[in-house]
Write a sequence for this structure.
């Protein structure tokens, strides 16, 4: 609890129960958060919690950042554009793809300035540890975005050095693009885990941004991002990643997750939603996403499978995570 006399953080005040964790018929724990949905026109649809609560969207912001880079002249499409939007697992194909992005502008992974790390994917990280591989910017899950940022700077004639600085022309354009797509002036600028600027938003704003990307005309920056993410879900996530499984289960879905329990998605008709889980857990995200999408009539058995999160007892399923939405 906050100290006596201190204000309640807005995200805490706006949060409500979103998911129950059930073990053998007993509710073991509850995930609180905010789930906001909007229609094709950006108007509110039924949701849960404070839609206009300020929060940090983390890597769910990457598709919007990619739109900004395309507006500045970045020449990427297809799988490499999806990789620019990714929190990738660090599998060999992802790593090779980041190098391909850099090669296009005569750059190398030595030019990357994101935070060194081991791969995000469990199997890829285990392989790296077994081989004694040191953390690197190339292996870190945001390296596709950072490679695209560097190449964007080359294309626009901006300095490559200092591309992460909030005052750099690229980051000023990203901020303006986030405000444009979400309809929300970023309430805060901080530093994301990868080192890039992170702009604040609201769940309703993030949902609106995804909706605009989902319905954009082909060939526009927004439309190019949507096409890349729809056609190449593995490049935007990785093998057996929940976000990849959701994209594969619902044709035309544009979906992206972020650290600290964030996910946003939009259908081709512009219906979109964003969720932030108060405890920062990613565990309920696929359950919540599947519940919303199924309620909208999207998906089928593949979506049900992608949205199932089991609770284990001695290695066997004895319970599940359940969405508590009543939308």
């Amino acid at each position: 609890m906050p100290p006596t006399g201190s204000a309640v953080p807005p995200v805490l005040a706006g949060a409500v129960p979103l998911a129950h964790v059930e073990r053998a018929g007993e509710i073991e724990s509850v995930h609180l958060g905010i789930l906001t949905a909007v229609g094709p026109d950006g108007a509110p649809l039924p949701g849960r919690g404070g839609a206009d609560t300020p929060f940090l969207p983390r890597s769910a912001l990457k598709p919007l950042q990619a739109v900004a880079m395309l507006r500045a002249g970045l020449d990427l499409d297809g799988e490499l554009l999806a990789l620019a939007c990714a929190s990738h697992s660090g599998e060999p194909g992802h790593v090779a793809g980041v190098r391909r992005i850099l090669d296009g502008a005569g750059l190398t992974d030595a030019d990357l300035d994101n935070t060194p790390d081991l791969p995000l994917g469990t199997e890829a990280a285990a392989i790296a540890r077994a081989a004694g591989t040191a953390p690197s910017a190339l292996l870190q899950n945001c390296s596709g975005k950072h490679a695209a940022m560097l190449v964007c700077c080359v294309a626009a004639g901006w300095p490559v050095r200092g591309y992460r600085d909030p005052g750099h022309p690229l980051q000023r354009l990203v901020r303006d693009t986030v405000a444009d797509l979400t309809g929300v002036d970023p309430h805060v600028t901080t530093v994301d885990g990868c080192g890039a600027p992170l702009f604040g938003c609201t769940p309703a704003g993030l949902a609106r941004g995804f909706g605009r990307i989902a319905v954009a005309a082909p060939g526009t920056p927004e439309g190019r991002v949507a096409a890349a993410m729809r056609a190449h879900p593995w490049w935007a996530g990785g093998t057996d990643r929940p976000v990849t499984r959701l994209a594969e289960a619902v044709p035309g879905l544009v979906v992206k997750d972020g650290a600290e329990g964030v996910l946003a998605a939009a259908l081709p008709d512009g219906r979109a939603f964003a969720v932030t889980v108060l405890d920062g857990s990613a565990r309920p995200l696929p359950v919540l996403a599947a519940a919303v999408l199924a309620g909208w009539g999207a998906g089928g058995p593949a979506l049900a499978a992608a949205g199932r999160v089991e609770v284990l007892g001695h290695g066997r399923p004895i319970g599940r995570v359940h969405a508590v939405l009543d939308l």
Remarks:
- The chain has twelve helices and ten strands.
